Amino acid sequence: MRIRMTVMAGVATLGGSLGLYPLFEKSGWFWAGFGAVLAVAGGGLLARRLRLPALLNLVFGLAALLLYLNLAYAADKAWLVFIPSPESVHHLGELAGEGWRAANRYAAPVPLLPGIAMLTAAGIGLVAVLVDMLAVRLHRTAPAGLPLLAMYSVPAAVREDGVGWLAFGAGALGFLALLMADSREKVGGWGRTVTTRSRPPEVPLAGTRARPGEEARPDAAALAASGRRIAVGAVAVAVLLPAAVPGLQPRAVFGLGGGSGQGTRTVTTPDPLVSLKRELTRLDDSVVLTYRTDDPQGPDYLRLYALDRFDGDRWTYSPLKSSSKDKLVDGRALPPPPGLSIGRTHRVTTRVLVRPEVRNMTFLPVPYAPSNVAIKGDWRVHPSSLMLYSLRDSAGGRSYTVQSLRADPTTAQLAAAGGYPADVVSHYTAVPKNIPPQVRRLAEQITAGSATALTQAVRLQRWFTVGGGFSYDLSAPAPQHGSDLVDFLLHSRRGYCEQYAASMALLARILGIPSRVAMGYTPGSEVRPGEWVVRSRDAHAWPELYFQGTGWVRFEPTPAGAAGQGTAVTPSYSQPAVTAGGESGGQTGQTPATSAPGEETSASPSTGARHRDDEGPGNRTTQQDDGQGGFAATPWLAGALLALLLMGVPMALRTFTRRRRWSALAPPRAPSPGAPARTRTATPDPAGAAHAAWRELHDDALDHGLEWRASDSPRATARRLGELLELDAAGARALTRIARAEELARYSRSRSAEPVERLRADVRTVRESFAASVSRRARLRARLLPPSTMTQTRDALRTAGDRILNVTARVNALPARLRRR
Q1: Contact assessment for residue 49 and residue 2, using Cβ atoms and an 8 Å cutoff
Q2: Which residue of 440, 449, 647, 662 pairs with 582 in a disulfide if CB–CB is 3.0 to 4.6 A?
Q3: Do the Cβ atoms of 195 and 58 come closer than 8 Å?
């Protein structure tokens, strides 16, 4: 059964699964995987206890994993809580589909939804099945490291920071422990350790004798210690060397070295837009932060990122080159906001408390434009965008105070903004050449007749919120390619804030207006005077357009309220009345009127547009499936019938073997009158009958779990079985006759006097005695899964494998033989 190796295989799998920790928000995934590993280990032990072939060892492991998943996630729909039923298996399939969709929808770390937890348990369980098969059953421990390594490849591919050294070390030590256990078993298979008498370390006094147990034995302690030192050293080198090389880490060990130039380092963070999708679709809608502000106009948006590059597919920010001069120091003013030189401004103080549950928030959410920040830790500022970030710290659980300079531009100031600086134009109006002509024509059609950049921006915003026929839908997929944004603008017109912000910024750049996409949080909800709460549903993206003298100005093309982003706020300067000639009427705070009574009704999204799960394509598919009759019993019945047939193969093979043995010894039949001589049956060989009876006795003993010693003579075997089972008189006589017939057939030239039918009846009598002497479980196993059949199958497979290897060797040696000739 190899219990020790089974335990070590489970420990190695659990150690390797620790590398998955960066993918999840909570630790419940580990316990789900722990149960899967236990179930697989139990299935492997059972298969080895029954002495089944290696392929059935794999089947038992998978079956045990299915039973565990069924018990853990579909017990209410199973038979007797743990037996899979069609309903429970169907539920597991649906749960797996939900988990797969959620894993594609969220960015790591993902919430531990039931579907994700089940997929994780199933994945760890499959790795456990492969490790148990390779290391324990097939004695191939080294290749068992491949499935363990596969678990590390998942976080390495999903997250840029990979796996921590502690998790990697735990998995590596688990695999090394598995290798050591396998080596110990292989050495122990040679028998007891051979001891040698040599000179003891201390010479006894004259006339004394060494005490028992003090004889010299082979000292393997030094060899074992060397092996452990090599193993620990290899793991240490694998963990510490990459961290010590500056080119492999953002910073070297203990923060020394790294980067190039004057201590400059490139900052890498997860994709902000992926994080936005995850926050907007969180099911728990957890609190992200709370803050207090003294802004008399009400709080502004809290910005995290400023995405200034559009590569044709996605918006990203330029690489941040961090240096020591960018580090935040309490009391030191931040760089002034770019472009802000005229207009009214007022200072705002905001005190923020980020919840401790927030993970991996390496950018600070602050109102634009921050002028001074008081926070503990290593935090830095990007001068051109005023993004605040850290190379090593997270905002989770921290409180900080932000003093910001909030601009309050008027419509007239924005309309009268002068030309743009050359560096702003070259960087913030860059558009890929592969933008379709239809999108360029669309931007010109929307803003036709506009004489100022403000009027163009207002027309773009109005087209998204009122006149373009767009609907807010969180179920829309995140744009991955430029064609997705084109489809959003020209065809589907269905999406959430990411599509709205990215599309308006792109159209603004096509028109020559410097623009970028900002991402962060809306003001949230006021819980008490002056105190606000921001939740995950308040995550948001919006475009920022540049106006000389005012700097970066926020616009809001995403629908607000119940039919859109619930806490989004449209700024007053972006709502002037637009005349027929396209010029601003000069009034602030006036909402644009619709051109027709039915335009706003038809274009504005309905409440149901935000939640399209009730009427989307997925629901239509479900209705079609229901219309086809629901659950189809035919596939399940066919699968159950196939399973029963497979289970009956060993029993049928045993029956076929028994009948074949006796049919070859059938008594001669009387020939029919006039029949040819060749049709007459030959007289059965008495020695063959004795051998057949003895082989049947051997197989019946194996089937009932009785020990069979190949070195014993037939008489010794009969005596030992009789004493072991305490057979009755009839059984003892039958066993004696079978043994005597086998002895005569082996060692005597005289023929056995026992006829075939008598021996066959004796075998049947002894089989019944075997069955009466063992437990019910052994009787069922002898009937349903006879080990003798498994042995025959294993021998046949081994023989076939040997023949294949011989043929392969001959084919490989054929070219050499031909060359010799």
Answers
A1: no
A2: 449
A3: no
Query: Max alpha carbon distance in the chain (Å)?
Result: 128
Amino acid letter, 308: D
* Alpha-carbon span 296 to 301, nearest angstrom: 14
| Distance between CA atoms of residues 758 and 684, nearest Å | 14
Distance between CA atoms of residues 71 and 21, nearest Å: 24
- How confident is the model over 19-39, as pLDDT tens digits? 888 788 778 888 988 999 999
DSSP string over 280-292: HT-SS--EEEEEE
Q: Which tokens hold the place of 243?
A: 């961290």
Helices 649-663 and 633-647 cross at an angle (nearest 10°) of 40
Are the CB atoms for 164 and 5 separated by under 8 Å? no
- The 10 Å Cβ neighbour count of residue 242 is 14
The kind and range of the H/E element at 244 are helix 221-244
Cβ contact 288:358 at 8 Å: yes
Residue 46 in tokens: 């059972």
Task: Kindly give the pairing relationship between strand 539-547 and strand 551-554.
Answer: antiparallel
pTM over 0.70? The answer is no
Condensed to tens digits (0 to 9), the pLDDT of residues 218-271 reads 555 555 565 566 666 666 666 555 555 444 444 333 333 333 333 444 444 445
List alpha helices for 516-632, DSSP H: 597-603, 617-627
Question: Which uninterrupted H or E stretch holds 303?
Answer: strand 302-307
Dist CA 607 CA 589 (whole Å)? 25
